[in-house]
Amino acid sequence: MCATCGCGAEEVRITSLGEEGTAHHHDHHDHHHETRTLELNRAVLARNDDLARDNRAWLAARGALAVNLMSSPGAGKTSLLERTIRELTPRPVQVVEGDQETVIDAERIRSAGAEAVQVNTGAGCHLDATMVRRALDRLQPVQGGLVFIENVGNLVCPALFDLGERARVVVISVTEGDDKPLKYPHMFAAADLVVVNKTDLLPYVDFDVDRCTADARRLNPDVAVIPLSVRTGENLEAWHGWLASLSGGA
Question: Which of the residues in the chain have pLDDT under 70?
Fold first, then answer.
């Protein structure tokens, strides 16, 4: 069990291009006392942050950087990555895919033209810095490359865990409702960019982009917001521009 969020993370599987790797991670924590739980929470996050700093330095030494892509299931993270891989040239793109089960998304990424490593978390509801480092060791990011880390679909726990990324992106879709920043404040407070996807559906749903933007910026005044449609390509140039603005450093 994860001492911080309570999810199960006893088995993590990492798969890359026909190769399978299985890892077993067993944490047995005493949750009988609240003070003990808080101590464990702090210890887990502190250890994760140390590993994340190592990941960031490791990537910087290779001239690569990582973007942590987070959302609820179905918001369009993988579709955004597929289109980005096809259109973001000449910069090389590689992907760490996080899901509880299956290699479906990694296969989609490979079909789009990028190398991918799949991390299956089992019952775990988020990636952590250790999982990402093991995936990066498999992936071996190329010089000057951009590594997308597609986190497990969840708007809660991924916000707590630094992975060594250069930037955090939250993807929401207009079909989810414009109240998500208020309902999931930790996620939006941690974001560098909010992508509002599926804007082609705005005429058919009750979603106020201005309200969503204002709520996100009340939590995080510096957050960028890009409404776009992966399906139609509307405003994707803003997404590409934001990616181009990222520094290649740590």
Answer: 1-11, 17-40, 89, 247-250
Instruction: Supply the pLDDT for residue 186.
Output: 97
- pLDDT value at residue 6: 60
User: For residue 157, is it within any domain?
Assistant: yes
Name the domain count of the chain. 1
What HEC string does the chain produce? CCCCCCCCCCEEEEEECCEEEEEECCCCCCCCCHHHHHHHHHHHHHHHHHHHHHHHHHHHHCCCEEEEEEECCCCCHHHHHHHHHHHCCCCCEEEEEEECCCCHHHHHHHHHCCEEEEEECCCCCCCCHHHHHHHHHHHCCCCCCEEEEECCCCCCHHHHCCCCCCEEEEEEEHHHCCCHHHHCHHHHHCCCEEEEECHHHHHHCCCCHHHHHHHHHHHCCCCEEEECCCCCCCCHHHHHHHHHHCCCCC
Give the domain CATH number at 70: 3.40.50.300
Distance (Å, rounded) from C-alpha 226 to C-alpha 229?
10
CB 155 within 8 A of CB 184: yes
**Residue 153 falls within a domain, yes or no?**
yes
- Is residue 1 in a domain? no
> ∠140-145-151 over CA atoms, to 5°?
75
